[in-house]
Design a protein that fits this description.
Blueprint: E1 4-7, E2 10-13, E3 18-24, E4 31-39, E5 45-52, E6 58-60, E7 68-73, E8 78-83, E9 92-100, E10 106-107, E11 111-116
Parallel strand pairs: 2-11
Antiparallel strand pairs: 1-3, 3-8, 4-5, 4-9, 5-6, 7-8, 9-10, 9-11
């Protein structure tokens, strides 16, 4: 069973940066997109960013555009989320996902990001 392995979460002060990583446990073909959702305290899991695999183009939720940058490594089948100018409101669990043709969405286990004020 394919797994997504996330890393890079942690504790950071407001204004700081973190870089999340997500890699697949095995090679996957026909990837459509990979991206990130996040679940902040008391809220549902919400879309944060995606990268379309073939084109390499990125899409962000409006509130994160300009502070977060998503990128990919097609060789490693990995996706990254560079998070800058972090705010306490960014605190939450960040989940990586992958969509591929012919299979259901695959989720990572989640990585905790905590931003202190």
């Amino acid at each position: 069973e394919v797994q997504l392995v996330e890393s890079g979460g942690g504790l950071v002060q407001a204004g700081g940066s973190l870089r999340l990583s997500c890699e697949t446990s095995e090679e996957i073909y026909n990837i459509l997109d990979m991206g990130w959702f996040r679940q902040t305290p008391g809220k549902e899991r919400d879309f944060a960013a995606r990268i379309w695999w073939s084109a390499g183009s990125a899409h962000y939720t409006d509130s994160l555009r300009g502070r977060f940058t998503i990128s990919r490594d097609a060789v490693k089948t990995a996706v990254y989320l560079q998070m800058d100018s972090l705010e306490p409101e960014d605190t939450g669990v960040y989940f990586c996902y992958l969509d591929a043709s012919g299979r259901g969405r695959i989720w990572g286990q989640g990585t905790q990001v905590t931003v202190s004020s």
